[in-house]
Amino acid sequence: MKYYFGFLNQGLSYRYYARLDTTTDPAKPNPWGTPIVWAELEFEASEDNRTLRIPERPKLAPRVRFQRQLDLAYHVYADPRWAASYARHICRATGCKRVKLFAQTHFIPDLPAWHSSVQNGRPITLDLESPETYGPLIELGDFKCTDF
Q1: Is 53 domain-assigned?
Q2: Which partner for 109 in 5, 69, 113, 146 could form a disulfide, CB atoms 3.0-4.6 Å apart?
Q3: Distances (CA, A) of 87 to 46, 53, 83, 104, 144
Q4: Residue pLDDT, tens place only, 106-140
Q5: In the structure, what pLDDT confidence band is assigned to residue 145 with cuts at 50, 70 and 90?
C-alpha cells in the first residue's frame, strides 16, 4: 500500500486541510481554502444541461474517491493548463457538446465565527456551506467538444 499511495499522490491526505498561507503575513498565517472546480455541461437538448462539482457533495464514499477528487481540484486550480485535459475527459465521458470550467475556493470560517456559534453550550449553528464561505468564481476556460 505504501507505493500505491505514493504513486497516486494520496499518502498524506491531511495536506489538503493543514496548509497555512504565510504569504500575506508570516506572523499571522491563514488556512488555505479548498479549491472547488465547477463544470457547466451543455448538451444538444438544453433540458439535459447540468453542472458538475469536484469534489462531489454529499457523495463521500468511498473515501479514496473523495481524496482523488480533491487532488484533481487542486491540480486544475493550481495550474489551469490541466483544464483542457479535464474538459476533454468530461466531453468523452458524458457526450456533451460544450464544457465551461470554473474554479472557486471554499474557506473555513474564521475562529471568532466558530466561537460565537458554540458559546454557552448551544448547538453549532454555523452554516459551512453559506455563500460567505466561498470565494469568487474564476473562469478556467470554455471548451467545445468538437475541438478535441
Answers
A1: yes
A2: 113
A3: 19, 13, 6, 17, 9
A4: 887 776 777 776 776 666 677 778 888 898 999 99
A5: very high
b/e for 126-135, b at 16 or more Cβ within 10 A?
eeeeeeebee
The number of beta carbons lying within 10 Å of the beta carbon of residue 94 is 16
Provide the number of structural domains found in the chain.
1
C-alpha cell belonging to residue 55: 469534489
Q: Is residue 52 part of a domain?
A: yes
44-60 pLDDT tens trace: 998 999 999 998 876 66
Cis link prior to 136 (omega < 30° from 0)?
no
Cell of 23: 504569504
Where in the sequence is the domain holding 141, given as residue range(s)?
34-147
**Cis ω on the peptide bond leading into residue 80 (within 30° of 0)?**
no
DSSP conformational letter for 134: B
